[in-house]
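From the methods appendix. Each design record in this collection lists the tokenized structure first, followed by the designed amino acid sequence. Records were kept in a plain field format so they could be parsed without special tools. The example shown here is representative of the layout used throughout.

RECORD:
FOLD TOKENS (58 positions):
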């Protein structure tokens, strides 16, 4: 997505019913951003049973 003309990436945590638990916007799409989001999400919502990606390199 673009915000003020600059590329940003939206990370979302979704539960088994399809409801969005948490959203996170970053300017990078790399391992560090993915681990940061996963860590924040796990602190608030415990450990996930499954982790599903959209097959991006992150």
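DESIGN:
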């Amino acid at each position: 997505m673009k915000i003020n003309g600059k590329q940003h990436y939206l990370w979302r945590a979704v539960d088994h019913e399809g409801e969005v638990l948490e959203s996170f916007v970053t300017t990078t799409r790399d391992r560090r951003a993915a681990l940061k989001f996963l860590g924040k999400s796990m602190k608030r919502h415990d450990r996930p049973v499954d982790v599903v990606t959209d097959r991006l390199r992150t």
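APPENDIX NOTE: The helical segments are 31-45.
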